[in-house]
Amino acid sequence: MGLAVWLSASGLLRGADLSQLRAQLKIADEAGDKSAVIELGRRILATAPKENAIWEKVARAQIEIPDFERCGQTLDAWEKAVKPPPAAIEDFRGDLAMNKKDYESAERHWLTFLARKPSRAAAADVYDKLADMCADQARWVDHEKYRGKAITAEDSVERRVTHATALLRLHQWDPAYAEMAKANKTDSTNAQVKEWLPQFERLATFLPRIKALDAQLSKSPDDVDLLLDRARVFTEAERPLLALDDCERVMKLRPASMRVRIQTAEALLDNQRPDDAAKLQVSPSLAREKDTHVSEQELRDLATADAQIAQDPKQVGPFAVRAKILRELRQYALALADAKAAVALDDKSAAAHFEIAHDLDELDQKKEALAHGRTATDLDPNDWMKWCFLGMLEKERADFPAAIESLTRSVKLQESLLALREREQCERQTGQIEKADADAKRITELE
Question: How many CB atoms lie within 10 A of CB 258?
Fold first, then answer.
């Protein structure tokens, strides 16, 4: 039973004088019973409507429940009851506006509150809220400014750490590390210091490379290659927000680049934003190396293909190459689009049909995959890999005789463990035990 209900049921609310109500309010406040605080506060205000402290308790309890609509009504009543209206009303109105994502109104109310010269602690809290609001809006310069003002109002280890991270976002490396050093010197056991100090130490090992790129970018701020290289360093340093900043900038400069699409999606996935990565048609199955990052070589190869396509969009080869890289990154929808673009330019491209077959197979369109696999071998009958893959597609459809024929052609062109293993399984399915045993023996010899 809530305290307000209990008090009402016990009759303590009825006929209680102000001293009793104040005592009960203190108990409710200490117990954290917001409903009781609101009920008791209203009873007190009915008799003593000028008591700002009680108005504030009621408004704060309504925000914490939360009940923003009634809190707004409370603020209106408070403003009418007390003249001149206290500054705290502006703080609460800022909270209500922030809840509605009305950033302009929230900032106006909070700045009005600060202009009324509140206590240092209250000012620092509002600067914290202003900084959080700016982070929501990606206003990083203002974000850092408000973090700094919060420290000026009331210094704390936590505020030093958050200011240091704000400086990082602006690439102000030396001031950021200076702030972190102050926080660590003040209290090395602080939870935020223990969380962030190792991250700063890791980033420090990458700073020489970052600062070198910074210097080059100061002369050529829109150099796409430099921006992507810096984003890559941020990714390696496990600073995905910084990587995303650079990637999103390049997306505006070169939206057709597949390298920037993959790097942007990687940063989004590292920031736990798979839905936003999906908007770029990149899935969470993005292939990573052992260091959990996309292969540097594949990014370079994508950049080369991007440049070739940009220079001459009627070349078939770069589309087929890019499709292969995207398939290896397990991004089959993007790979399929490039492979189809290649076929549209030249329907006699065996490489393009081969890529389409792979992508359709991964996208569970088996019948269509088989058709393109056969086309690929018709156009290029001397490639063992194409015959091997066709045999695997035929095996999946339980057409074992056709699979054995395709896999045999693959082995004749180039003996491979993959084709031999696949053929051995098909031979056992069709009762050709002696041939299967012979393949098994050959596999052992090759292994």
Answer: 23
